[in-house]
Design a protein that fits this description.
It is a single chain. The chain has a domain at 6-94. The protein has helices at 6-20, 25-93, 126-132, 141-148. It is mainly alpha-helical and 154 residues long. The longest helix has 69 residues, at 25-93.
């Protein structure tokens, strides 16, 4: 790039002051500044577009590699399932490979929870409410006054 130091910038400014004149120099400087800003934005846009296109190409390559890997996995699963189904059908057709009837199934049987579905219960357990002093029953206003009324001492 162009190596512009402070001494070179001062020399350019002095020549511009002499050539252009002090009356037109501020307007020319603003114009040059806006043009340089536009050029810089244009260069940054071009760089960003090039980076985006490079990333897009990389993503396309990555997508293709993932698709080929997925196809390979799908093919291996299909061949594995076909082999398993063949072995399964061969095993079921063989008379000596029949499982005995006394073996229990591996999954547990269903047990009814014996819950009263009509009774509404909160998620907070009762022992927690009792330990922390949380009210579990609603009191009417009169009952609350009667409960918390100071006791009379005779």
């Amino acid at each position: 790039m162009i190596d512009l130091g402070i001494s070179k910038m001062a020399l350019i400014g002095a020549v511009a002051l002499i050539v252009i004149g002090p009356e037109k120099l501020p307007r020319v400087a603003r114009t040059v500044g806006t043009l340089l800003g536009k050029a810089q934005r244009y260069v940054n846009d071009v760089k960003a577009e090039v980076n985006r296109s490079m990333e897009l190409d990389e993503l396309r390559k990555m997508k293709e590699s993932v698709e080929t890997a997925a196809r390979d996995v799908e093919q291996s699963v299909r061949t594995g399932t076909a082999d398993f189904e063949k072995q399964w059908s061969d095993g079921l057709n063989a008379p000596e490979a029949q499982p005995p009837e006394s073996i229990e199934p591996a999954f547990p049987t269903y047990r009814h929870p014996r819950k009263n579905w009509r009774l509404k219960q909160g998620a907070t357990p009762q022992w927690y409410k009792a330990r922390n002093g949380v009210r579990t029953r609603a009191l009417s206003g009169a009952a609350r006054v009667a409960r918390y009324r100071p006791k009379k001492f005779d």
